[in-house]
Amino acid sequence: MRTILKTMAGALALPLALAACGGGGDGGGSTATGTLRVQMTDSPSCGFDHVYVTVSKVRVNANAQAGDSDGGWTDMTLSTPQKIDLLSLTNGVLADLGQTALPAGQYQQVRLVLAQNHGNTLANSIVPTGGSEQALDTPSATESGYKIIRPFAVQPNTLVDLMLDFNACKSIVQEGNGSYSLKPVVTATPTVVSGTISGYVAPAEVGAAVYAEQNGQVIKGTVADSNGQFVLTPLEQSSTKGNYDVVIVKNNVATGIVRSVPVVVNTSTIVAASSVPITLPTSIMHVASGTVLPVSAQAIVRALQSISGINYEVTSANANSDTGVYALSLPAAAPLVGTYSGSLPVALTPVASVAGQYTAEADSVNGATRSGAVNVSTSDQTGVNFSF
User: Fold this and answer.
1) 239 φψ region: left (φ > 0), alpha (ψ -120 to 50), beta (else)
2) Cys-Cys crosslink for 197: which of 109, 185, 232, 273, Cβ 3.0 to 4.6 Å?
3) pLDDT of residue 240
4) What average pLDDT score do residues 7-25 get?
5) Could you give the strand order of the β-sheet that contains 349-350, starting from the edge strand earlier in sequence?
6) What's the CA dihedral at 24, 25, 30, 34 to 10 degrees?
7) What is the largest CA-CA distance in the chain?
8) Domains and CATH numbers, the chain
């Protein structure tokens, strides 16, 4: 896997300097050291041409409950904060945030600290599709940083790659005045236990969002490039949490699902070859919309499609932070579903019984969930409202 990462096109070199803070991170008290390298990647973004964040620091701690001023932190500070376009980090393209020595041991918490916007100098910003650059509000990110709880081990005399996967699509929240704020959805994966899923979609599906999911939860996403290729990496090996379902979504196209795809460490599992790419039929799109109240719920609304008792997330949207309004654009056509067996091509068959049938699930910031049935098989459905 390390060889794959080093050869990924477009990786950005962002040098880090080590600065010990609040005890320097004892990593469990070992005097031996290993090396931690931190890299960043991104999942697809909805309705934006660019999503910029400026990283100034990455912090790690052996204690999952450590607060800002507690001991045990090791700070990895960029010598010069770097503005990164998250939407350039798809299909295995990485931003290399550098590396540093750490005491060997088990670590639990990672924090991503961003630089501040200053007047018209925008460290963090977005460019809506067809629009102009706007400031992105980043509450708490420039002070304590965004917390990521993900255990990982640093072994003596060993390099550990830690991948921060920033899901821009689920992280951008529109406010009532038209401005935007960042509610980050970031995961961390140590690549020593990871592999890859890759494949191709037909030319008509270029630009499609492609997700690796488990039990209806998006684990990793990317965008099919101009050649139709998609690369989902890093993904934890299947023995840890089971196999993955690959879900392909694009406006005006039926959803495609390849079920039960295994991931093997340091290996790429191919689900479709360039000679026989995944081809999906066209579909009419309809919109499910409503409100989520109170707005303090800060809910994200997911559209789930259930097939043989298993949920698949097709799309999602954050409710407006001031009004609670949300909208989901969904295919009316039947999804095409097949199961990976190790041989290609994977046969995909339409499941007509669930065409246009979804569950809208609103997930609040405190973990509470509400859901309701959605039928967009023949028209838009409005008034799909949720109350917490």
Assistant:
1) alpha
2) 232
3) 64
4) 35
5) 217-223, 209-214, 244-249, 256-261, 336-339, 349-350
6) -90
7) 65
8) 2-184 (no CATH), 195-270 (2.60.40.4130), 285-338+348-387 (2.60.40.1120)
| Res. 376 pLDDT band, cuts 50 70 90 | very high
- Cis omega (within 30 of 0) on the bond before 294? yes
Q: How far apart are the first and last CA of the chain?
A: 44
Q: What are phi and psi of 206, to 5 degrees?
A: -55, 135
Q: Looking at the predicted structure, is the pLDDT value of residue 19 above 70? A: no
Helix, strand, coil percent content, the chain, rounded in steps of 5 = 5, 55, 40
If you average pLDDT over every residue of the chain, what do you get? 88
> What does the block give as tokens for 75?
């700070």
- Say how far apart CA 93 and CA 385 lie, in whole Å: 38
* Token pair recorded at residue 74: 């090791």
Q: Which residues pair with 58 in a beta bridge?
A: 76, 112
Nearest to 313 by CA among 324, 302, 322: 302
Owner of token pair 């499910």: 288
Amino acid identity of residue 174, one-letter, is: Q
- Give phi and psi for 273, each to the nearest 5: -85, 160
pLDDT of 334 reads: 98
Give per-residue burial for 254-267: e unless 16+ CB within 10 Å, then b.
bbbbbbebbbebee
Asked whether 254 and 336 are in contact (CB, 8 A), the reply is: yes
CA 272, distance to chain mean position in Å, is: 22
Nearest alpha carbon to residue 124 among 112, 114, 139, 111 = 114
Query: Could you read off the pLDDT of 20-30 as tens digits, one per residue?
Result: 333 344 444 44
Q: Which residues pair with 363 in a beta bridge?
A: 300, 369
